[in-house]
Amino acid sequence: ARCLPELSKDEDTGGEGVEDERRASAVVRLYEVDCAENCALKARALVEGGLVIPAVDRARAARGDADAEGWSDKVGDDETEGAMPHCRDRVDENEEDVDEYEIVLKGHMAGISASSRGCGDEGRDPDYALLAADLRSVSSLRRALSRGGLDASRPTLVLSELVLAYLGRSGADGLLKFISSDLLRAEGSALVAYEPMGPPPPPSPSSLTAGNAVLRGYAEDYFGKFHTKLDRGRHDFDVVEGHGRTRGGGGNSHGNGDGGSSFHPLGSDRSDVLSRLVSCGFSAPLLADCVDAGKAASSYSSSRRCPFGSGDRDPPSPLSAPPSEYFDEHAALALHLKCYALVCAFAPGPDGGAGLRLAGRVCPWRRRSSALGSGSPSDRAAAPAAAARIPYDASWLSKSTAAV
């Protein structure tokens, strides 16, 4: 994350005061939300790894208070109550079902210079907050974000990776509705989610092919492993905690109408996911789309090989050519990618076009067809058919490996 946009030296900013104001307003702030137990582990790892520099209460630090730094791994421990009041905010005792610190860590992300923020080191507001909340409860999440200082009137990017599937259907629906109504309000706001999708519904006899039969069998077997592991762990926890008693909560399947399972893919296929998004408020003027991870990877790699638009193209790179041969696990990887969906949603601009423009930049599989003339997107082929058929290429694979 960094301060965006950077102002060019020859840009007429209207004076130093205006430039400082624009830079200050463009600071990127990151709010990470997780359960209290994970937050305690993350806080220690982030601080000890030097990724986040904890905020310091300067007055308390001057007095030599050992608790001046803005983090602690003792989340929810009554013995630590009162430590770091500006960074760990304990909710009022009369607030129902909340007994843990919501703000676990506040600080500055390492590697982001003060000059890029348009301000000096002294008096800088923290740009990172680690918040403990129950994602199954919208009230818990809203309270944590509010206490953390999130301003949803500014462009907001919501990222979710393998989260919604573990909240139960009702819990995930509540979270999606909150995102669509409260977080995607400002122009330039967006949701990007990477979540399980499938297994696909049984094909009709007329549409039955070897391909969709294999995909359904693979997805059922793959997701079945998640069900087995999660349900076994939930059963063991219930037995230890209450000798077999069930636990409440929006994300637990006991008694919440979620069908007796702890794992719920976002939908069975693209159409199912889009229908669910619409039911959760992702309808006009919001723009939502969904694609399986295989198509997303193929579209990205194709756009890297054959960039869209006019003008000079970059010289060909050895990594940009399709692989000469597929490795043995190609078929398994292709099936695996179809078990995950990439979901994107975009807030509209004043003219309704900003969402489309941003979607075109973020989602390479979305291309407008001039033949339609209605403004609706189409999946027009952007590269040779042979390139579009593969779920990845050497460049995509090498970049992914390097990132891991």
TrEMBL record:
Q: Where does the record locate the signal sequence feature?
A: none
Supply the InterPro entries for this chain: LCMT1 (IPR016651), Ppm1/Ppm2/Tcmp (IPR007213), SAM-dependent_MTases_sf (IPR029063)
Keywords, A to Z?
Answer: Methyltransferase, S-adenosyl-L-methionine, Transferase
- The reaction(s) this protein catalyses: [phosphatase 2A protein]-C-terminal L-leucine + S-adenosyl-L-methionine = [phosphatase 2A protein]-C-terminal L-leucine methyl ester + S-adenosyl-L-homocysteine
Q: Where does this protein have compositionally biased stretches of type Gly residues? A: 247-260
Task: Tell whether Cell membrane is among the UniProt keywords.
Answer: no
Q: Biological process GO terms, please?
A: methylation
Q: Family, per the entry?
A: Belongs to the methyltransferase superfamily. LCMT family.
Any one Gene Ontology molecular-function term assigned to this protein's record: protein C-terminal leucine carboxyl O-methyltransferase activity
**Record's protein name:** [phosphatase 2A protein]-leucine-carboxy methyltransferase
Superkingdom, natural source: Eukaryota
Q: What is its EC number?
A: 2.1.1.233
Q: What class of enzyme is it?
A: transferase
Which residues lie within the region annotated Disordered?
1-21, 240-266, 300-323
Q: Kindly list the organism's lineage.
A: Eukaryota, Sar, Stramenopiles, Ochrophyta, Bacillariophyta
